[in-house]
Specification:
12 helices, single chain, Gyrase A, domain 2, 10 strands, five-stranded mixed sheet, 20% strand, five-stranded antiparallel sheet, 3 domains, alpha/beta, 37% helix, Rossmann fold
């Protein structure tokens, strides 16, 4: 698998740009730019990025494995291009030297969910190639409409192919770690009544109803007046959690059912917890401790609703643009003229 860099946040200027570096040598490539080293796997830390003695940026670095690293950069397209170039340019998924079938087989090797595997197996057997070839035989209007429909459908199931990041946030003792363990299916996060137990990011994959999610348990949010000792560590954990929210597909803000209403950060979905402690809990409240199976079911349905995955994500033999770069390619081809449309499709075959 070639080294590849892609932006997880929307393209263009903004506060933060999240760059995902994947493929063989990803960890070594990022380490080569980091002036004072990088954090341990699963941890988020500040790094100073330099290229040939020139300082590029101070960024947050999240190491998810030897072949997957995230860099949270200041939001500048120019800076993003500089970092990608310093990393070696990044290999686009849609390289013309690799057939669509081979690309699907390579992508299949890293998938974790049954739904994604079925979709990719169809593409590895030629579903996408056949569909694109059929489009080249149509008149311009029908071909353009067909490619636009393919792009729309593919974007709708993107969450199945690339595990969406789901963050559990909220105040201390709101049940985040208990729910995290219930969703993951093992005791990955330490749970305790003592506030501030979780101080770092805990990351694991959770498979809910055949769909794989990247789940992140974060430090509980509360006021910590001290700036040294354990409080400083807790503050760092809270800052890391806040920085990661921009790259999440869904952020659940957990609150105890029956507790006082509090301000919910923008972009978060409220999930009521500790339902077992009330005689009549509100609708949709969960108790990961007393009813982990019920909590998994509620969270799964909430995620499918948020991500538009209400129906079946797999139809046998259906063509799918199965990588973000293929979707970007289709969007670019649709901007062209009649001859450019047909030529663009033929070039990808």
């Amino acid at each position: 698998m070639a080294l590849h860099a892609r932006e997880l946040t929307p393209a263009g200027a903004g506060a933060v740009s999240v760059l995902e570096v994947t493929g063989e040598g990803a960890l070594d490539a990022v380490r080569g730019l980091a002036k004072k080293g990088i954090p341990e796997p699963g941890c988020l830390g500040l790094v100073q990025l330099c290229d040939a003695g020139e300082e590029l940026d101070e960024a947050l670095c999240l190491v998810l494995g030897p072949e997957r690293v995230e860099l949270h950069l200041h939001g500048s397209p120019v800076l993003l291009e500089q970092v990608v170039r310093a990393l070696g340019g990044g290999a686009a998924d849609g390289s013309g030297t690799v057939s669509l079938e081979e690309e699907a087989r390579r992508t299949l090797s890293g998938t974790r969910s049954e739904a994604a595997a079925r979709i990719l197996l169809d593409q590895a057997e030629g579903a996408l190639s056949r569909h694109l070839a059929e489009l080249t035989l149509l008149d311009e209007a029908r071909a353009r409409r067909g490619l636009a429909e393919l792009l729309s459908d593919s974007r709708g199931i993107a969450a199945v192919l690339v595990p969406p990041r789901v963050i559990l946030a909220g105040p201390t003792n709101s049940g985040k770690s208990t729910l995290f363990n219930a969703l993951v299916g093992s005791e990955r996060a330490i749970t305790c009544e003592e506030p501030g137990t979780t101080r770092d990011l805990v990351i694991a994959h959770a498979n809910l109803d055949g769909i794989d999610y990247e789940l992140v348990d974060t430090a509980g949010e509360r006021e910590t007046p001290e700036w040294t000792g354990p409080a400083a560590v807790e503050r760092a954990g809270q800052a890391a959690a806040l920085a990661l929210r921009g790259s999440a597909a869904v952020v659940f803000w957990l609150e105890r059912a029956g507790g006082a209403e509090a301000r919910v950060p923008e972009g978060c979905e409220v999930l009521k917890t500790h339902a077992d402690r009330l005689p009549e809990p509100p609708p949709g409240a969960v108790s990961a401790l007393a009813d982990p199976r019920g909590a998994r079911a509620v969270v799964s349905e909430r995620l499918k609703a948020s991500l538009g995955l209400g129906g079946s994500t797999w139809v046998a033999g259906r063509a799918v643009l199965f990588t973000p770069s293929l979707c970007a390619w289709a969007a670019e081809v649709l901007k062209g003229s009649s001859s450019e449309l047909r030529g663009g499709i033929l070039a990808r075959l």
